[in-house]
Design brief:
single chain, about 475 residues, DUF7705, DUF7705 domain-containing protein, signal
Length: about 475
Amino acid sequence: MEHQLHVLFMWVTLVVISVVSGARGKQHISAVGDPGMERDELRVAFEAGNFCNEVGEEAPGMGSPRAADCFDLSNFSVRHRVAEADNKLGVGKPFPGAVNNVDLYAVQKELYLGSLCQVEDTPSPWQFWMIMLKNGNYDTKSGLCPENGKKVPPFNPGRFPCFGKGCMNQPILYHQQTQLLGGDTLRGSFNGTYDLGSDIGGGLDGISFFEVVWEKKVGAGSWVFSHKLKTSKKYPWLMLYLRADATKGFSGGYHYDTRGMLKTLPESPNFKVSLTLDIKQGGGPKSQFYLTDIGSCWKNNGDPCDGDVLTDVTRYSEMIINPDTPAWCSPKSLGSCPPYHITPDDKKIFRNDTTHFPYQAYHYYCAPGNAKHLEQPVSTCDPYSNPQAQELVQLLPHPIWAEYGYPTKQGQGWVGDGRTWKLDVGGLSSRLYFYQDPGTPPARRIWTSIDVGTEIFVSDKDEIAEWILSDFDVLIYTSPIHK
Ligand SMILES: *[C@@H]1O[C@H](CO)[C@@H](O)[C@H](O)[C@H]1NC(C)=O
Ligand SMILES: *[C@@H]1O[C@H](CO)[C@@H](O)[C@H](O)[C@H]1NC(C)=O
Ligand SMILES: *[C@@H]1O[C@H](CO)[C@@H](O)[C@H](O)[C@H]1NC(C)=O
């Protein structure tokens, strides 16, 4: 008996090792619940946010801006776990955890939808891919967004787009629940507009629009997520991302518990992100398409965030692949560059070293508005567009990123150059500059959100972006990555 158990144990161990390490001996496991988006029984959710990732006010008849499409397949039919009545839940309607404040209601609704979608797994359960839609309008007279996490009184407009009262509204959302078509194809969608009272069925001229359609052949390949985002005069700044978020704790840009797909949180340097991206339309010169935007949160003293918005700082790094995006960082604008660059062989190059610093590799760096010991010159990040202070390290395609599998030339991965990428996001993010108070132990760089999508930043005409994303995976290397 003991011998048999031992043999069984050996056999199980071997199976586990071969599954984990793969045919060529790579030591990695997937950090996401749905590796490569290959699971037929999809888990996908939707969240919309205002300028500081809150709700402010629900759109009439739409409920709280959280929704989900999660189903199981049984006997060749789709069994939905989330009813349309759940998706329409809004303030005043009860569910386990419901509260009266519109912002907190959305938080609780996300947790509730998560409980309906949750898949048990090791090392922890997971809930869904998250589609995030954001409206960049800010009504400075509304007093709705804090400044670096601090509540501030209303102030005069001018710095942000807003057509007037109500410009921070939540969208109209239509949902086509996933259906089985022709016996072997699954398809569903979310779409809608920010222009309340408009009819997207009558054409999109002059109105904003967003859409994500997901489709998959049963038992084969990846889910294919087709995205569309259109700005309008009233809504010139819109963002649409597909995110792998933390399954608990704060995902990037949030100061409350969220639900997501990252059943293990990736930590720099030992992880990679693979995905297939095919951009059909770029969205104009202001479209900052992110070939991954990674988000996390830590305090300026290196401590992890704890929900105190006055000292928590959201940290983002983004690779912008629109070739129209210029490097604002330059020898003449050192304040738009990080204080230094670190090479793959760990050499530090200061930004005042004009012969060696790779200015063209950085679009823009901005420091947290609550940092106390900033090196001058410096540009601080927009203090209103997150619930707390933020720091941004925005990159551009450049030969110095070759080591990490990122685009090395402007235009790579752009319209007409669809590719499958395997990005050493962990390696690169371990060598980026992020602000910390002098003398404090370096923060652990644990990433709670990995996003792909675009931010069309204040366009002066209606712009349309269209892209297709599939095969998304986050791979954690259990031994150091060998080059
Ligand atoms: C499976 O579906 C078929 C056709 O709809 C039906 O006749 C059958 O009873 C179902 N079986 C089960 C176990 O539900
Ligand atoms: C939006 O989705 C609905 C299904 O929910 C579909 O009927 C409609 O055609 C879509 N609208 C546009 C403009 O694509
Ligand atoms: C360049 O910047 C570094 C770091 O701020 C500083 O120590 C050094 O003195 C500067 N060098 C020159 C030539 O200004």
